[in-house]
Amino acid sequence: MNASQNSTNGLLGHRWGRVLVLGLLYMVQGLPFGFQVGALPVFLYDQGVDIQSIGYATALALPWALKIVWAPVVERFGGQSGHRRRWILPLQAGMVVAFLVASQLSLPDMLPQLMGLLLLLNFMTATQDIAVDGLAVDLLPPEDLGVGNAAQVVGFKVGMTIAGGVLVWLTGRIDWSGAFVCMAVLVAIVALVLAMVSEPAGDHGADPGPTESVLRILQSLWDAVRVPGTTLMLAVIATYKMGESIIDVMFKPFLMEHGILASQLGLWMGTWGMGASILGSVAGGMLAMRFRLLPLLLFAGSVRLVPELGQLGLAMGLIEVGPSSVIAITLAEHFAGGILTTVMFASMMGWVDRRIGATHFTLLASVEVWGKSVSAFVSGLIAEYLGYSGAFAIGITVGVVFLVLVTRLPGSMEPSRQQR
To answer: What does the alpha-carbon distance between residue 4 and residue 14 come to, in Å, rounded to a whole number?
Structure first.
């Protein structure tokens, strides 16, 4: 990008400006999801909800798995390069309203209404994610995929940390109503920042040309998925979080059954653990800028298995369930997971056809969500029949399957070599 373009594009014309704005946008998207996975299981368990139903509550994230259905519409009507804000800003306004409405609910009496609002918030953030992913594809040149996807993952996890950790910890002082108001204020601030930023047209990929029809976008997407090796690549994406999700959803109820308090979980996992995850994501971004991505996927997936074996050891009674062991295993698992997530998302963006960046990336992201959502949905059922140790063992086995699939990817699928 030349000097005149930098001047014209302002904040988004500079690497770290792009990183900042993308990080803020992804942070907003992490708020509802962070509340759902970090705060809701604790809240439901405290209300006496059984672990099988807690697992089923993950279905609230269904819009993230289905967003590919309306992604071509977002790309066609105002979502193309240079016009992503046409979707992002109205959706953020809707999120502010939804959070403020949630702040007025009387809990736990109005729990069904809260569930409905969380489903709506997930729909709005999933739709925003389509436009923001397209914006990232527009803005990030190949050499910035590592740092750009670190901003993506770190931003999302900061949002999750705020909603699922910090605000849960503060509910003793501001209660749930105050937590929702805080989230509404954060979204409003990010919306104001985006409203003041000049959005440039993408200039790092192929020229998008005139706006394509929905049918043409779908045809281009069909052509992209028919590229040799794509089926195996989709299997890698689908399985990379599948085993981890089985373990993560059930790990909190397991610890609470062993006397760990909800406030301790909010601090250890929602705050310290997410901090470790953010550090891991930053490390993953740095590694992705220096090394080939396929070997990094294999390395990161292997490292992730180590703390998961520790979680299995806790469930089997081989390791005593206490503050020191739980904190150590939690921090290690979150750090390793952070590295893997950033490397995977950098790989996904490298596999994308930039001419249909929002839709193609949404397809890959939807496959990722389906993999982890289905496994999270049945995690309670697995734990009900096989116990926590059986559920954790299955999660580890799926992690091994992921590694085997990565080794089967041909060298031509190395993301840095893709010529779209």
So the answer is: 12
